[in-house]
Amino acid sequence: MSPQATVLLVDDEIRSLEALQRTLEDDFTLFTASSADEALAILESEFIQVIVTDQRMPDMTGVALLRRVRERHPQVVRIILSGYTDNADIIAAVNEAGIYQYLLKPWHPESLLLTVQGAAELFRLQQDNELLNVELKTSAPWLQGRVDGKRRELKARNAMANITRAAGSPLDKVCELLERVAGFDIAVLIEGESGVGKELLARALHYASHRRDRPFVVENCAAMPEQLLESELFGHKRGAFTGAYQDHIGLFQQADGGTIFLDEIGETSPAFQAKLLRVLQEGEIRPVGSPRPLKVDVRVVSATNRKLAELVREGRFREDLYYRLSAFAVTVPPLRERPADIPLIAEKLLDDARRHYQRPGLTLLADAQDALRLYRWPGNVRQLRNELNRMLVLADGDALGAELLSPEVLQAAAEEQVAELAFLAGIEGDLKTRLEALEKRILKETLTRQRWNKTRAAEELGLSRVGLRSKLTRYGLE
């Protein structure tokens, strides 16, 4: 097992520092500092791979600290936290001073964790590349191709592996497609029901791309009125409208060189769609109230819980914008189509709760896992998280059993069990005939869930491809 990456956390507010620790302590070896001077001293005495610092500190700003870190320890991957989107100094530092990522407060625990994981991966890749460069200098010319191949392999490692799923999950295909398109600088559209994890997949796509060391910014297009959305994305000049007391740097400019994720893109108005289309066509933005445009280099990843093609047919979404956004499109299957993922996702969410509530003994019992797997989850992962939080509130101890589940989840599990018993009771014949009927049903269910990928179905069932083919022929399922 490889050793954990070392991360230095810097914040003068003790509660903020403790929150950072709780989020990262299970995945990294942590060092903490409550001032810039203390952080610099730790960097001199310890092997630090990633530094995460707050911007506002009394003795030295986070930007100033990271500039010092870059001068003395250039190999350390640098992350800054700030609650101010208009801070031009921070934006300049991100774009010019080599800061790996800029996270807005309040940060989300999962976003912070993924960002630091990406930073640790970048540090490791930098070390691997240095070793490869040494190998190139000391090796014969004919090894050049082999080393270049190794370098490509190292760069291909990305956050897709951190997307929680079971072996043979339908989500594997989505991750494989996103992994393939990551190296191509084209727009990606992620479709899927609300709560399936589209933002996590977009973030993983960013870290798999050559833009991984540039910003990844997120905007929910359904969360604000059109004028505010335009200002938030493209920026505005002072005095452009009532309340515009200072210049505002838009998210497209903040994401320059990186990736912008536009969630719920299907909820935007026709007027805004026309402005976004111009940005994609011309590669430039015009801040509200500005007399001239600004060039930006941004990869756009968009997401929607609606079928954009249907909105186009209904005349509610521009066809030309649709084709711009969907140069490469994937659809994320809902949770009900990947029941094997549910216990693993529940365990991951429970792990977050263990850290957040400082209850390391929390355990999801087997009967609760079975009931969760049988429910259809119309709200997907978001609803699953709410269900687990409900169980935490009702639990007297750390054991979370099925009795803590909400009535609709328990009822769904009971109905599924009744249906299964009815199926078994309805099978006629001797034991051999009944077992064959049950085997046929299992084969058909597995193949349907694996979208008739016989290799994956055979792996899940513990069969060889020849053995699976024989059974399919026998039951007329070929």
TrEMBL record:
InterPro entries: AAA+_ATPase, AAA_lid_NorR, CheY-like_superfamily, Homeodomain-like_sf, HTH_Fis, P-loop_NTPase, Sig_transdc_resp-reg_receiver, Sigma_54_int. PROSITE patterns: RESPONSE_REGULATORY, SIGMA54_INTERACT_1, SIGMA54_INTERACT_2, SIGMA54_INTERACT_3, SIGMA54_INTERACT_4. Keywords: ATP-binding, DNA-binding, Nucleotide-binding, Phosphoprotein, Transcription, Transcription regulation. The modification 4-aspartylphosphate is found at D54. Residues 164-393 form the Sigma-54 factor interaction domain. Coiled coil: none annotated. The keyword Iron does not apply. The keyword DNA-binding applies. Residues 6-120 form the Response regulatory domain. This is Sigma-54 dependent transcriptional regulator. It comes from Vogesella aquatica.
